[in-house]
Design goal:
mainly alpha, single chain, 113 residues, 82% helix, flat
């Protein structure tokens, strides 16, 4: 499996954990003290880091740090939009499309020749 595919898959998995760690408590722990939400989020974030660090180390064997960052941002949007709509019950906004188009431009510039 190509390095960029391995990296993208691992970053996607880590991003799912990250998104739940950062935003999931807003829906599930809204009535709990912030410290409870922070500790639970920190625990979830540990799993995110256990996947993200190897993903970046694998990716860095063939990609530069800028390419890794842009890949992460594209994956973040790809994970966040369904999370926002399906889990957080937020409306799907046209702004997500515009943000995605901007990221496509970033992908072009960071990965070109």
């Amino acid at each position: 499996m190509p390095i960029w595919v391995q990296t993208a898959l691992l970053l996607s998995l880590s991003n799912i954990f990250m998104t739940f760690a950062w935003y999931g408590h807003l829906r599930t722990l809204n009535s709990k003290p912030w410290a409870v939400a922070a500790l639970l989020s920190w625990g979830i974030a540990l799993f995110e880091y256990l996947i993200m660090v190897p993903a970046n180390r694998i990716g860095y064997t063939e990609l530069n740090v800028g390419q890794l960052k842009i890949m992460q941002e594209v994956i973040t949007l790809m994970v966040f939009v369904p999370f926002s709509v399906l889990f957080m019950h937020q409306p799907l906004k046209l702004d997500y499309l515009w943000a995605g188009l901007c990221l496509l431009g970033a992908v072009y510039f960071i990965f070109r020749g």
